[in-house]
Amino acid sequence: MISTPSPCPDRLEDIAELVMGILPASQGNELQKHLDTCPACSRFAQTLRNEENKLRDIFDRAALTVKSQTLPAKRSTVWTRAGRLALAAGLLLGMVTLLFSVLPENKTSPAAFAQVLDYIRTAQAVSYKMTIQMVRQPAMEEEIIRLEPGRSRTCSGTGITQNIRIDDFIVDKSLSLFPNIKRAYLTEYVGREKSAGFEGMFESLKKMQEDSGKALGLETLENQTVQVYRSVDAHQEATFWVDVQTCQPVKIQIKTQPLNVGNFKTVASTWTFTDIVWNPPIDERLFSLVPPEGYTCEQTQVDLSPPQETHLVEALRIWTDQTGGAFPDRLDRSAMPDFGMKIKEGPTAVINLDSNSSLGVGQCSTESNLPESEVKAALEARHKITKGLLFVDIQIGSHAGWRYAGAGVRWGDAGRIVCWWKPRNADMYRAIYGDLAIRDVYADQLPVLPADPTGQPTP
Predict the structure, then answer these.
(1) Which of 36, 88, 314, 366 is 20 to 30 A distant from 428 in Cα terms?
(2) What is the pTM of this model?
(3) Ordered structural domains, the chain, with CATH
C-alpha cells in the first residue's frame, strides 16, 4: 500500500505561520480553503497544532511559576515575549522534524508502485488524450475512452480528417464514423481469439512488474503535487506522474527504443497520456454500434484468424495489380506507407489506406464522394495487405530465416524467387515465386544475397 500522502511542499511554510498566528489574514483565508480540500495538508496542520499546544502548556506552566514569585510587572512582560519567541522556535524545530518524517525518501518503492499498477489494472473505465510522436513524423493525437471489459471510443483528427472509431470486443465489431462525409463502416471480426481484448501501448502498462518502478521524488504538475515513478527495461522507459492525495496516475509517458531485427525495423517513439480521468461517468450511447441518423453505412467482415502464407500471396497480388506488375522494394510493416497507401486515385479524391497519414483510413481527401463500392474495396484491400504483412512479422519474429529478394522482380517471372522462410521443424524452405506460386525448395536452390548488416542469416 502507498504510505500516507505527503503535504504539498509549497504550502508547508504558510501552514506553519498559520499555526503560529503570524500569517496575514488574506493569505490565511485562501490557505484555509486549501486545507478544506487537501487531507494531507490538513493532517499536517493539525499535527503542528498539537505540537504547539504541547509547547504552550510547557510555557504556560513556566509563566505561572514566575507569576507566583513577586516580580516587577516589567519583568513579567519580558518573560511573556521571551516565552512567545521560545514557543515559535520550538514549533519551528518541531516543524523541521516533522518535515523529515512526512516527506518521502527518494528510493525504490515496490509496494507504492504496485498500487499504482493495481489502480490501472482494476479501473473499470478511463478516458485520456494520447499523443504519439515518432522520429521525423508529425505528432498524432487521439482522445480515447476505454470501458471494461472490452469497449473503447477513439476520436482523432479535426474537420475533414475527423474520425470516430468505436470498438466492441464483446461482440467483435467496430464502427468507424467519418462526420465530414457522413459515412459509416460497420466491421465484423471473425476468427479472433476470445481471450483477446484491448491491445496497444496503454494496455502494456498492465503487464509491468510491480518491483520495476523507482520513485524519483515529488514534482509540481499543473499546480498539483505528484510523485514520479519510472520503470525501465531493454525496450522502453515508462514514467508515471501520480497524485499524492489519490494515488492515481495523472500523466503517463512511454518512450520506446528502435527495433532492428532482420528485415523488421521500427523507429523510436514517445507515447504521452494526459487528461487522464479514472472511472468517469459513462454515457452508454457513446459506444453504440448504430450509425447516427443521416449516415450512409457499409458493412464489411474482417478475418482475424492467424495469418497464413496465402494471405501474403494475396497482399503481393494486390500490390502488383496496382503497380503494373512490379514487386515492392522491401517487404515489412515499415513498408505500409508505400505498400498500398493510395489504392484508388481519381481526379477529385484519394482514398487513404495508411493509418499514419493525416487522412483517416478510408477517408476521401475532398468532399467529392467516390462510389461506395470503391471505398469498400479499398478498405478491404488494406485489411488484406495488413494481414499479409503480419505473416511476415511472424516469420521474422520466429527467426525462420525470412528473406526478401523481390526488388526489381516483375509479376509473371516464374523463375525468380521473391521471398522465402523455413517452417518450424522443416527440412525445406517455403518460397514464393514471381508468378506467386508457392513451392518447397532446398537451401541450395535459394538466391545468394549480399550479407545482411542486421545479422539475419543468409542461406
Answers:
(1) 314
(2) 0.55
(3) 9-102 (no CATH), 110-287 (2.50.20.20), 306-445 (no CATH)
